[in-house]
Write a structure and sequence with these properties.
By secondary structure, this protein is α/β, with parallel strands linked by helices. The protein has a domain of about 80 residues: 2-Layer Sandwich (Alpha-Beta Plaits), CATH 3.30.70. The protein has three helices and five strands, in the order H-E-H-E-E-H-E-E. Strands 2-1-5-3-4 form a five-stranded mixed beta sheet, with helices on one face. Helix 2 links the parallel strand 1 and strand 2. It starts with a helix and ends in a 13-residue tail after the last strand. The relative contact order is 0.19.
């Protein structure tokens, strides 16, 4: 083989290797191609949101708002007892979490009613005085 042939073979293999490397998708994460991001140092507060009014969809609006604020809303429902004001119940003996949820909702009263039988940290009883903030349309 001549030097010219060896040079062309090396250049050809280098070009083929570069083309293969650019054609393959970049690995983003360790497992499923997801971006690797650090988890926040704050705990995931599990929240139950109950509509305590006759206004349909108010608990759903509160759920979307709280999720946008970073809370983990795990249950949404309706309660029969009607309320005028919003009440936030501490279920897991972490009053600072309940106060954080209450401050996100605006004017809300916080009470401690521990219940270890639930897989929840906070229960929110949405009252008729709560007005959801303006948000983009969710279809």
């Amino acid at each position: 083989m001549t030097r010219k042939t060896v040079a062309f073979a090396l250049i050809g293999s280098f070009v083929a290797l570069a083309a293969t490397a650019t054609a393959l998708p970049a690995r983003r994460g360790p497992a499923h191609g997801h971006d690797v991001r650090e988890r926040p140092n704050t705990p995931r507060v599990r929240v139950q949101v109950l509509n305590a009014t006759k206004t349909r969809g108010l608990a759903r609006r509160a759920m979307m708002y709280l999720r946008d604020q970073g809370f983990d809303v795990v249950e949404v429902g309706t309660t029969a007892a009607a309320r005028d004001t919003t009440l936030v119940l501490d279920r897991s003996r972490h009053p600072e979490w309940a106060r954080s949820v209450a401050s996100s909702l605006g004017q809300a009263r916080v009470e401690s009613r521990p219940d270890t039988s639930r897989y929840l940290d906070v229960t929110v009883l949405v009252g008729s005085s709560w007005r959801p903030p303006a948000q983009p349309f969710y279809p």
